[in-house]
């Protein structure tokens, strides 16, 4: 194998096929995202162009936020303007593109079973928060954590297409903010606000309705990510934890 290649292995053929499908969808509909070239797609492996660089650091947040805003705006304009957050979307081959609500309801109930939500009151609060955030234009979520982008000398390259689902504007940005916190410790309020402004400005270039995510919405997404990422604290370079909050906008 060429030293300029990177091979990712999968235990199940379905996971490899899904990653390829996601990769091709992003290539077609989220053109601002640069991805490594896909050289070979086998039944249980994918071989990509090797990209030399480093993961995202806190100082990169505004640049990556701007890139996400462009990618989300482009995907909405290209394919997702008619999608709904509570209904699976269809890929061109008829395969389902997971909706926003269904998989996360399952995941939140699992976190309760695992003990990350202390009681059913907390679970119902988080389910209410999830429902409250399912509003506005529909874009995509690709698990934006610091390892899923590579910062090179010239560019930002998006990698790992194992996960792809529908999501509200700002949800994937909040995942990046949350995982930077988990990796490096709390970010300043100014850093988060600056990133949100960059994200909104980029998304707004595709339609005026796309640049309206406010800080309250972002904080609600961060509350969800705190619960959803709780099992990974202490793994994958996540040395810090996010505070768990069991109330949502409009709740007492």
From TrEMBL:
<protein>
    <submittedName>
        <fullName>Phosphotransferase enzyme family protein</fullName>
    </submittedName>
</protein>
<dbReference type="Pfam" id="PF01636">
    <property type="entry name" value="APH"/>
</dbReference>
<dbReference type="InterPro" id="IPR002575">
    <property type="entry name" value="Aminoglycoside_PTrfase"/>
</dbReference>
<feature type="domain" description="Aminoglycoside phosphotransferase">
    <location>
        <begin position="12"/>
        <end position="197"/>
    </location>
</feature>
<dbReference type="GO" id="GO:0016740">
    <property type="term" value="F:transferase activity"/>
</dbReference>
<dbReference type="InterPro" id="IPR011009">
    <property type="entry name" value="Kinase-like_dom_sf"/>
</dbReference>
